[in-house]
């Protein structure tokens, strides 16, 4: 289950923090990069992508 404010590592090595569910969508999440040169950039990922490829950081 995807949790707000959870931090995930993607297969590329990028680190993102999940924000909130995108209004009007069933399972798209706003995220913010926390990784080096992309830090602060916003991106939207499908929940299925996060669950399949993201590795939650403890």
From TrEMBL:
Protein name: Uncharacterized protein
Domain of life: Bacteria
């Amino acid at each position: 289950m995807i949790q707000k404010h959870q931090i995930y590592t993607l297969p590329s090595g990028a680190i993102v923090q999940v924000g909130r569910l995108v209004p009007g969508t069933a399972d798209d999440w706003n995220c913010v990069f926390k990784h080096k040169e992309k830090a602060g950039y916003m991106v939207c990922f499908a929940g299925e992508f996060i669950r399949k490829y993201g590795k939650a950081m403890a």
